[in-house]
Amino acid sequence: MDNGTEQKIDEILEVVRFIKDNASTQESVDDLGNNLGKRIEGVENNLTRKIEGVENELSGLRSELQSVKDEILLEIKKLEDKTQTDHDALARDYVKLVRRVEVLENQFKRLQAV
User: Fold this and answer.
1) What is the pTM assigned to this prediction?
2) N or C: which end of the chain has fewer CB atoms below 10 A?
3) From CA 61, how far away is CA 68, in angstroms rounded?
C-alpha cells in the first residue's frame, strides 16, 4: 500500500472512531426520551398544583368580595330607609308649619280688622 492509500484509510478510521464514540444508540435515545417524558410529567404536575392553588385563592377572594358587596348593599339599603324616614318626617313637619302659618295669618287678619 502506498502512503496516500494508508493516509486515506487512517482518515476513514478516524472518522469511523469519531462516529462510534459520539453517535447515539437507540438505547440512549430511548433513555433520553424517557427522562424528558418524566421531566415533562413533573412540570405538568407542578403546574397543575400551582393552577389549583391559584384557583383556590381566587375562589376565596370571590367569596370575600361577595361578602363585602353584600355588606355594602345592606348599608345602602339602611341608608335609603333612613333617608326615606327623614324625608317623610320633613314632609310632615312642612305640612304642620304651613298649617301654623295659615292659622297665624288668619289671626293676624282678625286682629287687623279690629
Assistant:
1) 0.53
2) C
3) 10
